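During the reporting period the student researcher (J.K.) took over the structure-prediction task from the postdoctoral fellow and processed the backlog of single-chain submissions. One of the processed entries is reproduced below for the supervisory committee.
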Amino acid sequence: MTAHREQLGRELCPITNALLSAGYRYAVIGATAILIHGYEIRRTTRDVDLVMVVEGGFSAMREMLVNIGLRPSSISHRFAARQGTQVDILPIAGTDTVQRAIQTPEGGSFSALGLSEAILSSAKHDLGTCQVAVAAVSVLVALKLNAAIERGRDDLPDSCVCLSEYAKNDIRRHIAHYENRSVLTYDTSGAYLAGADFAGNGGAEIVASTRQAVYRLLANEVALTRTARRLQIGEEVPAFLLQAFVGGMEASTS
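J.K. obtained the following structure tokens:
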């Protein structure tokens, strides 16, 4: 286990253990989740992002999190752990209904699309002192591709790293390449599988939103070029990965 993974365990385990003890479902999302999955995104993340199921929205979440030892801030979704780690947590009402937005007490909002899928797709990952629930990589990619439309210096590069390395040691990647060798290379076969896996995990709204986000990103030559240069890969590679990802989505839903 790497030193960084052990550090993540020291920061996350007290929080996630307390959530589980209190009976709350959650999933780690964002860059921290990608790091836990073992992908080498070319940056360090300064915060931890989680989504949790809690009735009552931000007020109920705040009370519960303060009770387990997190310090609130002036921003409704942001807390600090005892170790000083910044923790951003979004509450959703449940995983069995479509929730499109999360309204904040400050009058703002966050998109809730894909957050139910993050929890439903999550699996336990060992961080040494505990196991934490982490959203599936394919869902993490979809969340980041949607975020890349609105913000995101990091979201598209992070997505491309995941798509490039997805299912790298999985026989499914070889099979996908063989069965689709007229349109896929081995290097893009992982992205294709990620798209297919996401379409299998995602509800209709997040799948439609992600498809639209991919097409918008494919039309954004500046973002694609910036991503390629940042990752030090060929300038055509981000577009090839996105095309393979959406191709996997289409194949899975056709």
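The committee noted the following: Residues 142-253 form one domain.
J.K. will present the remaining backlog at the next meeting.
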